[in-house]
Structure formats: structure tokens, C-alpha cells
Design brief:
The complex is a heterodimer of chains A (156) and B (243). Chain A has 156 residues and is mostly helical. Chain A has six helices and three strands, in the order βαααβαβαα. The chains are: A mainly alpha (156), B mainly alpha (243).
Chain lengths: 156, 243
């Protein structure tokens, strides 16, 4: 696993620390593990942290059932801090290792027109391993849709 | 700036005592220094004219009626950033959970959360999207077969269902099997590549638990126990929850 695919592209990534995984469960050590993996697959110089981060990170607003509560205006107001944090990094992608974060950050980017994409970590790991097929790229932007496609002939 | 608290409602003050009785050592809601660390770092500050410090002051003042009827408890995600920065480690998220639990009757709580909880209670899959044991197994096997053929380097890849004695029991959020099954594959590839011994289960496979968000104590425990039993029944050593 390495970041060669991104050496010349220099596409920037940030990461959302899921509250459940980091602050509420395993603390800063797991946030470090997360960064170790992300830096390994995107390249040290292409990773930009949000501020604040790790156990001090802001919740994105997708947790606690907020996504299902039928209060989209309140949920997006809550998420404005997260949107601002992501925009400040200038990253093209926000990696979200939690389903709620993934859905919320995806929605925030559309709603506040941030233009950033939202990725599961597994997509990125497989991309860097050169084993990401054409049908496993739902959340990649146009800049990465055609990069190192595994078995392109199997596109559906 | 949020509005000042207006006193005058019926003063009861029993709710706070009830919550305090539930809290473990260190959860004393009377220890608040009113420093505002909680509110200044809370993304929900400002919604419904509320913030964490204000909620706690209202509880301390016995404004039970006002806090139990407020929708703010459903706009706080219980992310725990407030207690993380609180010098007195006051458990405001637990207070919020108890407001959810003892505030509105079940039928008046957010419909989406109630519906997802109810759906999960219908079967042992615990799927909030209602996917059955058969649906899940079919989708997993169908997608696996497709990828074994289309990507011959992965012809030996497995996505076991109900494999007894596997090291890892893996949960799966309902969203993938129900709406975007191809998204399951990258994780399978990683597990295959590192040689992990893992399995799904037809019972208890769904990762989500909306009964917990609804603060439905009896039912969220039922869901956790159903899933834990599925892991135990397959004699798996580690339960991996991707949620």
C-alpha cells in the first residue's frame, strides 16, 4: 500500500474523526492510527487536518439519529461548522470512516456548495492497492473516476 | 446571543434529581461552574435558542416542563464534546438522553427514528431498512459471485455468511446491501488481501441501532442482545461494528 498514484496528482484529503470511534470510544490513539493509514495512501504532503481535530473534533451533525429525525434545517445549521472546517482545509476529499458522517458530510457539501467529495476509507485503500474496480467508485469525483481502474471492462 | 431564561413555569425540579440518581459517580449536575466551555464548542448552540449550559441551568432551576417539551434534545447528537471539555465532567449528553427518554411519548418522537427502530424490531436481522435474512444472504452471495467472475484475481475471495468459529463477526450497515451493494466489495477485498478470517451472520448483521437514538431503553438493549447472541452463536471471537 502506498501513495504513488497521488505523487504527481497532489490531490488533497482531509479526514473526519468520527465522534463514536474517537472521542467516545478509543480516543486520540485511534485518531493517530487513522492518520497513519490516510497519510500512507494519499501521501504525507497531501493530507491536511481540520482544526480542531481528534478528540476535540466537532460532530458533523449526522449522529444521534439527526439524519432520520426529519429536521433537515436544524441538521444543516448544526453542520455549518463542519462544512466551514472542511472548506478551510481546501481539500478536494473528506474521508469519513462512519456511515452517519458519510451521509451528513455528503449532504453538507451539496447544500453549502462546498464542491468537496466524501469517501469511505475502504475506497481509498483499494484505490491505492490498484484493486478498485469501475463499479466501486460511486463517491469518487471526476478527477479520480478513471485513475488506475481495476478491470475497466467490467464497468456496468 | 441566546435569549435569557425566563422563570415562571411550574417549578418541579424532580427531573434533575431523577437523572442524577441514574448517573454514575462524577455525574453531579450541581457542579457546573457556568464557564461556558460546553456551549462555545457545541455545534447545536443557537438551535431553538438553546445551548448545553442553558439546558443544565434550566434543569438546575427545576424547569422540567420547558426542557422535557423542547425539541432541542433531538438536535443535540450526544457527541460528548461538551463533557470532554467540561472541567467538572458533567454528563450533559446523558441528561439529553434522559430528556429524549422521558420527554415526549413514543408516538410524538421524530417519526423517522421511531420508524427505523420499529422496523429493526421486526426481525433478528435488526435491519432498520427491513432487509430480511434471505434478502441479505442473497445480495451478498450474488455480488460476490459477480466479482469473482469479473475480477479473476479475486476468484477465491469469500464473503462468508454464518461461518462458525470465524475470528471476526462483521456487521454491515443496511444501506449497502439495500441501496448500493457494490460498496460492500472494497471492504471484502481488504479483508481477503490481509487473510482475515471473518463472517457475516444472517441474524444480527445490521450495524445500526435507532432504538438507541430514540432512547428506548428496553428495545435498544434488545437489539444489542440480539446481535451479541448472533456473534456468540457463531462462536466468533471479535465483533466488528463498522457503524
Amino acid at each position: 500500500m502506498n501513495s504513488d498514484w497521488n505523487k504527481d496528482r497532489k490531490i488533497k484529503f482531509t479526514v473526519q474523526d468520527p465522534c463514536q470511534l474517537v472521542r467516545k470510544t478509543f480516543g486520540d490513539p485511534v485518531a493517530e492510527d487513522l492518520r497513519f493509514v490516510v497519510r500512507s495512501v494519499v501521501g504525507e504532503e497531501n493530507f491536511i487536518d481540520m482544526t480542531p481535530n481528534r478528540s476535540n473534533n466537532y460532530c458533523c451533525g449526522g449522529g444521534g439519529g439527526f439524519l432520520q429525525s426529519g429536521m433537515p434545517d436544524a441538521r444543516r445549521y448544526y453542520g455549518r461548522l463542519k462544512d466551514e472546517q472542511i472548506k478551510k482545509t481546501g481539500a478536494a476529499y473528506c474521508i469519513t470512516p462512519c456511515h452517519n458522517c458519510h451521509a451528513q458530510v455528503h449532504d453538507l457539501s451539496e447544500h453549502y456548495e462546498g464542491g468537496y467529495h466524501t469517501l469511505h476509507l475502504w475506497t481509498l485503500i483499494c484505490l491505492s492497492l490498484g484493486i478498485l474496480g469501475p463499479n466501486e467508485r460511486e463517491y469518487l469525483g471526476p478527477d479520480l473516476k478513471d485513475v488506475d481502474v481495476f478491470h475497466p471492462e467490467s464497468a456496468m | 446571543m441566546a435569549e435569557a431564561i425566563k422563570l415562571g413555569g411550574k417549578k418541579q425540579g424532580i427531573f434533575k434529581d431523577k437523572v442524577m440518581a441514574l448517573l454514575p459517580e462524577g455525574g453531579n449536575l450541581n457542579l457546573c461552574l457556568t464557564c461556558g466551555m460546553c456551549s462555545s464548542g457545541c455545534p447545536a448552540t443557537g438551535l431553538e435558542g438553546m445551548d448545553p449550559r442553558k439546558l443544565l441551568r434550566m434543569a438546575a432551576l427545576g424547569m422540567d416542563e420547558e426542557i422535557l417539551s423542547s425539541d432541542w434534545a433531538w438536535m443535540c447528537t450526544m457527541c460528548q464534546r461538551c463533557i470532554y471539555v467540561c472541567p467538572m465532567k458533567i454528563d450533559i449528553p446523558q441528561l439529553v438522553f434522559n430528556i429524549r427518554n422521558q420527554g415526549k411519548p413514543r408516538e410524538e418522537r421524530p417519526k423517522g427514528i421511531v420508524g427505523s427502530c420499529d422496523m429493526a424490531l421486526r426481525s433478528d436481522t435488526c435491519s432498520a431498512m427491513g432487509a430480511t435474512e434471505e434478502d441479505f444472504q442473497f445480495v451478498v452471495e450474488d455480488v460476490l459471485e459477480e466479482y469473482q467472475e469479473a475480477q479473476p484475481e479475486f476468484k477465491d475471495m469469500q464473503a462468508p455468511v454464518n461461518k462458525e468459529g470465524a475470528e471476526f463477526f462483521l456487521n454491515q450497515n443496511s444501506r449497502e446491501p439495500v441501496t448500493e451493494p457494490d460498496e460492500m466489495v472494497p471492504l471484502w477485498k481488504i479483508l481477503h488481501t490481509v487473510g482475515a478470517d471473518w463472517t457475516y451472520g444472517t441474524k444480527g448483521w445490521a450495524a445500526e441501532n435507532y432504538c438507541m437514538f430514540m432512547a428506548d431503553n428496553e428495545n435498544w438493549e434488545h437489539i444489542v442482545r440480539t446481535k451479541a447472541k448472533a456473534v456468540d452463536d457463531l462462536k466468533c471471537r471479535v465483533w466488528l461494528n463498522t457503524e
